């Protein structure tokens, strides 16, 4: 049987350049109407018993080529457990070699989170006591923008993920957060639900997710540069969510992402917004310190540079929400590599650890919800 490679499925992305003997040359396909690319996800058939070397030839032209050194490709035979495999980046080419022991093997940039799993999650959580569902609008491809609400407290908390669809760790984090919030035996969740109302958007970018994009929606738009002036034509996803935020207000917000280069979990804040106050900023810094104290899956040393006073980009959601609502607003970044401070040689950063971090974030929020 000849080797067969396929990416024609929900979230798939790869193009075969050539298969010569035991070498498979590939390219990642650009996001539609965009030059962004880095996400890949494909399946391999017909190679059982062979040792193959895969080469992604255009890795050097990707959105974040500085993210490839130290990166490890993920692979799975059951689409449940995604292990890491040694990868090499040299001369603009990402390569990895594996001995294939099964009829089907799947490879991906990170453990995928399909739109079908998204719908399963939304359906499962909506059926839990105290949870309500609202379709905030539709995407350019006509997919629903789902929002789940839970809790009856006065503080308005917004958690939202996958503005950048290839950052699938973000929805794994959301799955963990939702599971904790609906656990009726969880004392922390009970306290949070009594003091806050949570509005949770598991996937801000269904079109990009289904299309196998890294960073953009169906129109080639980076949603996290649209929060100052979203439009129905370019960014209906942001427009629908921001309109609902205007209705509820926002006291605390977390925008969940993945970072290609930094091997750590970290937070980015809203330094540089016009209405910055040390009092509001201290609430963000306090959250970060408490989170670092609570779990080895978070750290404070690595992260992004802070914006200078008055120089914050208000097209980004974290800055826009802090400025618009006076919210304690933040971006959580998780690695495509590993959280090196607490590394896992077999799985690297993984869905299970995303959920652990989500639980720690909610525990931290519960410890200071009265101060927000």
Automatic annotation (TrEMBL):
<dbReference type="InterPro" id="IPR040626">
    <property type="entry name" value="Pepdidase_M14_N"/>
</dbReference>
<dbReference type="InterPro" id="IPR050821">
    <property type="entry name" value="Cytosolic_carboxypeptidase"/>
</dbReference>
<protein>
    <recommendedName>
        <fullName>Peptidase M14 domain-containing protein</fullName>
    </recommendedName>
</protein>
<comment type="similarity">
    <text>Belongs to the peptidase M14 family.</text>
</comment>
<dbReference type="GO" id="GO:0008270">
    <property type="term" value="F:zinc ion binding"/>
</dbReference>
<dbReference type="GO" id="GO:0006508">
    <property type="term" value="P:proteolysis"/>
</dbReference>
<feature type="active site" description="Proton donor/acceptor">
    <location>
        <position position="333"/>
    </location>
</feature>
<dbReference type="Pfam" id="PF00246">
    <property type="entry name" value="Peptidase_M14"/>
</dbReference>
<dbReference type="InterPro" id="IPR000834">
    <property type="entry name" value="Peptidase_M14"/>
</dbReference>
<dbReference type="GO" id="GO:0004181">
    <property type="term" value="F:metallocarboxypeptidase activity"/>
</dbReference>
<feature type="domain" description="Peptidase M14">
    <location>
        <begin position="111"/>
        <end position="372"/>
    </location>
</feature>
<dbReference type="Pfam" id="PF18027">
    <property type="entry name" value="Pepdidase_M14_N"/>
</dbReference>
């Amino acid at each position: 049987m000849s080797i067969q490679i396929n990416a024609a499925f929900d979230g798939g992305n790869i193009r075969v350049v050539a298969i010569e003997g035991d070498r498979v040359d590939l390219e990642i396909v650009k996001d539609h109407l965009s030059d962004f690319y880095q996400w890949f996800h494909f399946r391999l058939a017909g190679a059982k018993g062979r040792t193959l070397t895969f080469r992604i030839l255009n890795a050097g032209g990707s959105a974040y080529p500085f993210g490839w050194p130290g990166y490890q490709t993920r692979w799975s035979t059951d689409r449940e457990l995604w292990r890491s495999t040694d990868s090499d980046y040299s001369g603009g080419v990402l390569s990895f070699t594996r001995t294939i022991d099964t009829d089907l093997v799947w490879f991906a940039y990170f453990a995928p989170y399909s739109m079908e799993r998204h719908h399963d999650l939304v359906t499962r959580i909506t059926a839990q006591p105290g949870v309500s569902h609202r379709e905030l609008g539709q995407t350019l491809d006509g997919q629903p923008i789902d929002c789940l609400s839970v809790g009856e407290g006065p503080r308005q908390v917004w958690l939202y993920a996958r503005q950048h669809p290839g950052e699938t760790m973000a929805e794994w984090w959301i799955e963990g957060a939702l599971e904790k919030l609906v656990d009726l035996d969880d004392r922390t969740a009970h306290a949070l639900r009594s003091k806050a109302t949570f509005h949770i958007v598991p996937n801000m970018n269904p079109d990009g997710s289904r299309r196998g994009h890294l960073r953009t929606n169906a129109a080639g738009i980076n949603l996290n540069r649209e929060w100052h002036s979203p439009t129905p034509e370019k960014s209906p996803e942001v427009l629908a969510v921001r309109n609902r935020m205007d209705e509820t207000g926002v006291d605390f917000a977390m925008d969940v992402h993945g970072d290609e280069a930094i091997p750590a979990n970290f937070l980015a804040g809203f330094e540089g917004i016009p209405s910055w106050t040390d009092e509001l900023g201290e609430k963000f810094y306090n959250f970060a310190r408490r989170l670092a104290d609570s779990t080895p899956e978070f750290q404070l040393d690595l992260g992004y540079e802070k914006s200078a006073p008055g120089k914050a980009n208000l097209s980004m959601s974290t800055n826009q929400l802090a400025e618009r609502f006076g919210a304690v607003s933040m971006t959580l970044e998780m690695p495509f590599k590993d959280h090196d401070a607490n590394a896992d040689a077999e799985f690297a950063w993984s869905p299970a650890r995303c959920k652990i971090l989500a639980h720690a974030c909610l525990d931290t929020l519960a410890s200071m919800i009265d101060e927000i």
